[in-house]
Design goal:
This protein is mainly alpha-helical. The protein has a domain of 261 residues: Helix Hairpins (Orthogonal Bundle), CATH 1.10.287. Helices cover 92% and strands 0% of the residues. The chain has nine helices and no strands. Helix 1 packs across helix 3, helix 2 packs antiparallel against helix 3 and helix 8 packs antiparallel against helix 9.
């Protein structure tokens, strides 16, 4: 496939030669008419005009190579007969087709034309020896050398045109690639601007989120401070409750001593009743003492009622404290789960303490009723000593029941003391848990402060990134302006 530059060159040469042939034919026609020698020049005139029309037709069909062959062949056909007619100037005429062939910068056309012309010239000179044969041979050699030189020039020119065409093709490819690159850069710049705009919007959203997080962190910090204050208040309340429980333990120990003493008195009264048959007077005194003792016992029962009311009140307060502790544990979230469990145990123990106190109330109520019966019996024994035997038996039985009741009451009091001690241990554990929650709250407060500092650094980084995005957008806009 021929190069585009050579094709254009051939087209230009064909066009020039075509019009040259038309002009020569027109001149030959006018000269023949004027000189009335048109009959003798009809053949070259016909060849010239016909070749010119054929070449024009082929050029019109975009067949430049065929047109060039027709034109070169026409030049040969016209020059060769003239060389026979003017042998002395044959060398000059021979250069005409050679020059025409050289115009195309086609080595094949030039080689064929050169070979035919040079062979014809040599044959022409050798077929007609002349006295100046040496000059003729020298002229033939010079014609051949000129033909060779022209051939080399034609080949070099063709190579130069071909190289230029290749460079042009490469340059065109590079220009296409450059255009594609520019289009890609333009497209990517537009996309980059869009992405930068979106990135700035996203950075704005991130900034708002960061501000929201900072506000939330501030609220969390405030909540933790409030929680720490609440935990401190709970801790103080628990300490007070612990003190109350300690007082309750001391009171229960005192109550145990009182009941022990009372039990001893009842035992002593029981022994005195056994000797009542022998000493009625002693019985009367003992009955009197028993009446007094029963009265004191009734007072003690009332005091026990008061003590048990205090225990019930403490249990209710403990229950309320456990409820408040559970609420604060729920507010503490994950770190307050252990505290919530302890609060639940405290609440359960408080409810159990209330239940036990209610049972003790019932038992003491029974004891009080029985004491009242004893008091009635002793009073009747005091009024009617004749029935002393029966009264002694009744009192003996009553004292046995009182003794058993006091044993049970001592056991109940011991159990209550044990439970109260357990409650004290629970309050101690609650206090430890509260201290641990306070420590956790302090750690959370420190973590929130670090989070706030990190958020501030993050916000500053967002601002820096936003400035960088703006710089990138400005550079992208400048690049897009340069490309456009």
């Amino acid at each position: 496939m021929q190069d585009n530059s050579l094709v254009k060159h051939v087209s230009v040469v064909n066009k020039c030669l075509n019009w040259f042939f038309f002009t020569v034919g027109f001149i030959m026609l006018i000269a023949g008419v004027i000189t009335k020698t048109i009959a003798t020049s009809i053949i070259p005139l016909s060849v010239t005009i016909v070749s010119a029309f054929v070449a024009f037709f082929l050029r019109h069909k975009k067949k430049e190579t065929a047109a060039s062959i027709v034109l070169v062949a026409s030049a040969l056909i016209q020059v060769l007969p003239l060389m026979l007619m003017v042998r002395d100037n044959a060398f000059v005429l021979a250069m005409l087709p050679i020059s025409v062939g050289a115009l195309y910068l086609n080595t094949w056309i030039f080689a064929i034309v050169g070979i035919i012309t040079n062979i014809f010239t040599i044959i022409l000179q050798l077929s007609n020896p002349t006295p100046d044969m040496v000059n003729a041979l020298f002229a033939c050699i010079m014609q051949v050398l000129i033909t060779i030189i022209l051939f080399l020039l034609v080949r070099a020119g063709a190579k130069l045109i071909r190289a230029a065409n290749e460079n042009g093709v490469q340059l065109s490819i590079l220009l296409d690639q450059l255009q594609k690159t520019m289009d890609a850069v333009r497209t990517n710049t537009s996309v980059l601007n869009t992405d930068i705009s979106r990135g700035k919007e996203n950075l704005g959203i991130v900034r708002e989120i960061s501000n929201s997080i900072a506000s939330a962190a501030q609220e969390i910090s405030t909540g933790i401070v409030s929680q720490s204050e609440s935990v401190s208040q709970i801790n103080q309340t628990v300490k007070k409750a612990d003190e109350k429980v300690s007082e309750l333990i001391d009171f229960s120990n005192q109550l145990g001593k009182v009941t022990t003493n009372t039990s001893n008195i009842v035992t002593e009264g029981f022994h005195n009743i056994n000797t009542l048959d022998k000493q009625m007077e002693i019985i009367n005194q003992s009955v009197t003492k028993s009446v007094e003792t029963v009265q004191e016992l009734s007072k003690n029962m009332d005091e026990i009622y008061d003590f048990l009311s205090g225990i019930t009140h403490i249990a209710e307060q403990t229950n309320l404290l456990a409820l408040n502790a559970a609420i604060e544990a729920a507010r503490a979230g994950e770190s307050g789960k252990g505290f919530a469990v302890v609060a639940g145990e405290v609440k359960q123990l408080a409810e159990q303490s209330s239940s036990i106190v209610e049972q003790i109330n019932q038992i003491i109520h029974q004891i009080k009723n029985k004491t009242k019966n004893v008091f009635d019996e002793v009073s009747r024994g005091q009024e009617a000593t004749q029935d002393g035997e029966k009264v002694v038996k009744s009192v003996n039985l009553s004292f046995e029941m009182i003794q058993d009741s006091f044993k049970n009451m001592n056991q109940y009091i011991a159990d209550e003391i044990s439970r109260i001690e357990n409650i004290a241990d629970l309050f101690s554990n609650i206090e430890k848990e509260i201290d641990r929650i306070a420590s956790i709250s302090e750690g959370h407060a420190a973590a929130v402060e670090e989070l706030s500092a990190t958020i501030q650094e993050h916000t500053a980084s967002i601002e820096i990134m936003n400035n960088l995005m703006q710089n990138i957008k400005d550079s992208s806009d400048n690049l897009q302006a340069v490309i456009q």
